[in-house]
Amino acid sequence: MEPTAYLKTTSTGLYKYRRRTPKELKDYIPTSEVVKSLGRKHDEAIRKSLVITQLLDELTQLTQLQSIPKTLILSILSDKLNITPKS
Length: 87
Prior knowledge:
With about 90 residues, this protein is of the alpha+beta class. It has one domain (about 5-80). Helices cover about 35% and strands about 20% of the residues. The protein contains two helices and three strands. It has helices spanning about 40-60, 70-80, and strands spanning about 5-10, 15-20, 35-40. It has a three-stranded antiparallel β-sheet. The longest helix is centred in the middle third of the chain and has 21 residues, at about 40-60.
């Protein structure tokens, strides 16, 4: 799916990233939906949306690898996306 498909605008003009949590990451993310505020500038919101989409897609692929420790995925979620993962 196109990353801008996850980009929504509020009634006040604020851009938000909204995406259902991928099923592979349900063990790591405590909510059913990933929601991030992206600011009011259109170009910046698109750039941030692309980064978040790419990161979630990469994490989804990492869960398929047996050699990757779960702590790595948890630290990427907390460091890059500011999501407090499930412990």
